[in-house]
Structure prediction request, 434 residues.
Amino acid sequence: MMNRNLASTLVVLLGASLGFPATPIAQGSAPTSGASSPAAAPRAVVTVPGMPEVRDPTNLYGEVAANRFSPNVSGALERVYVPNRVDNSVSVIDPATLKVVDTFKVGVNPQHVVPAWDLKTLWVANNAEGRTDGSLTPIDPLTGKAGKSIAVDDPYNMYFSPDGKYAIVVAEAYKRLDFRDPRSMKLEYSIPTPQCAGINHADFAIDGRFALFTCEFNGAITKVDLVNRRVVDTIKLSRYFDKPQGASAPKARSQTVSIKTAGPGKAEVCTTKSMPQDVRVSPDGRTFYVADMMADGVHVVDGESFKQIGFLPTGVGAHGLYPSRDGKLLYVANRGTNLIHGKPGGKGSVSTIDFATRAVVKTWPIPGGGSPDMGNVSADGTTLWLSGRFDDVVYRIDTASGNVDKIKVGREPHGLTVWPQPGRYSLGHTGNLR
Prediction:
């Protein structure tokens, strides 16, 4: 008789080959928190080839617990790297002293500092908005110094395939994902995303089969099949997703924005009532949380069915999403404005979502106003570091009390990263580690 686990695995693999969605974990798992059902232990996750195993199917953040470091980050300097978009520079902060200890030039319009899949390099994504001289600048975490930049088309953001074979450059202006060699950055292949205007942030399925990318400029999110290298579907997001069809939703704000398209100096104009930003998957891998800076909250999307199933109001300009080190909470950076180019001293705040209940449990305003944007949690989980996008500062926020320290940096800081961070490998952005 065939072993039951082997039979289950064969069924999953056969279904995937025929185009049917696989079920990555047991149906007995709790739908919201990721906690396993008392009736049955969760089934092992069948990952894509080359992807590290998922050791705890109920909490994919289990490997990024406080101070659980990989040997690959041994010797790395404890630093916070801050890309200053307008100054074309990176500020380096010593978290022990809260002082800027170095500043160096990089490419044009640095957007995010991205840890490599193997955790040995930090890449600065310089997308050169409206120009054709985008680049990636490597930083050596052992020295904190930058190396020679590599020319790359429009790297607004960057991720890595779960198996580590490719760097995924998010070429926002071209509505395209470019899959490159993770070291040389040589282009291997591309996946066009024509229905995803302003493609920017992403997170990945627990088994590595697909990723969800947000479409900032048309209020949507797109599902990309990483195995078959194609877009599965693109859906609109709305805080009024559950209203009966044909019923009129309350009037939402809209904003006219200029969207850069392929080629320097070219742009199109559109009006949107939704501007999705960062994405994070729930600990059990079932649902995706999507920050929306126009809707002032977080959408909840079921990964397998690819349907919106919830919306959580958080604060003005919801933007960045960061799980706590124990995988129980999700920190939401509310940028304090619905504008792409805001003013200093806005109604910025940080909200905390409980993964288990899908409820906002607390919100901390930035004292004196501010614009918390992108960043990450410290290695020990006691502080949340965020760029103050329109206030030219970095915030260090105590995750127990909400107390805030501010450090002056360059003009318009964006996707900072804290380094080193716990975890076995990086999926990109400012430290989406697992």
Observations:
- DSSP finds one helix and 31 strands in the chain.
- The chain has one domain: 62-242+252-419.
- Residues 62-242+252-419 form a domain with the Methylamine Dehydrogenase; Chain H fold (CATH 2.130.10.10).
- Confidence is low (pLDDT under 50) at residues 1-37, 258-265, 267-271.
